[in-house]
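Lab notebook, bench 4. Still working through the backlog of constructs that have no structural model yet. Next entry is a single chain of 284 residues. Request: give me the structure tokens for it.
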Amino acid sequence: MAWVCQVLYLTAFLERTKMTGLAFPDISPIIFSIGPFSVRWYSMAYLFGILFGWFLVNRYIEKYKINLSKTDIEDLVFYITLGIILGGRLGYVLFYGTSSFWHNPLQILAIWQGGMSFHGGIIGVITAIYLFSRKIKYPFLGITDLVVLVVPVGVFLGRIANFINDELWGRVTDVAWAVRFPNGGYLPRHPSQLYESLLEGLLTFIVLNVLWRKKWVREHTGFVSSLFVLCYGVFRISMEQFRQPDAHMGFYLNYFTMGQILSLPLVIVGIWVLIISSRRKVKP
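Model written out:
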């Protein structure tokens, strides 16, 4: 009898909401194609984010007389790009992947089929920066402070690309700005990708780059790094309340998503490093 009530409720809900919500914009995930080769918005989001970050970091090392050369930054971009790709893909396989990856390990290399984890990307980038800092004998947190100033640009563009790709959409809702995603069954859903792009991307970028202009912030190495980690963790945990969890994973303890679980350590580490960096004494 319970299932009959559920069917009736769902039918009534669909009838009530079928005329609500905004239509999904007709934007192709593919920008253009030449034969079998296609250029997608998602790949261009990564590319533009890396190029813009490269440009902005070069501007900062000149403006604030940071003891890094443009050649150093070129090498850093190479290290970070590898960290993003390898960490993001392996993170997705470990955190969100299905058993199919273990039955067919070659699928792990099929990046063009989609599937990247931001948390895995963070681990990959941190590892890359650590190796690079050891190579040039430069303070690890001094490099991360520069990198986190531009990371939100990639987050912003990546979430916009998720929206265009009709993926990672939000939970069903009746808010006025709900969007009817084709892959979401045309039910009105939160455009959670846009929420995340604005908070984890645009707002975080503005906050970090405005603070970076302050001499006190630049002198306290690790301050903006910890603030980025803290902001991303808090915003991601908050926005997961509107995001539909992956169908093959669902909720943990009937409430938490994998994104929230992975973001909690970021909040803890962010607070810890923020306290340490803000208390650090600066040499006169």
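Notes after review: The CA atoms of residues 64 and 218 lie 9 Å apart. Strands lie at 22-23, 30-34, 37-40, 179-180, 188-189. Flag for follow-up if needed.
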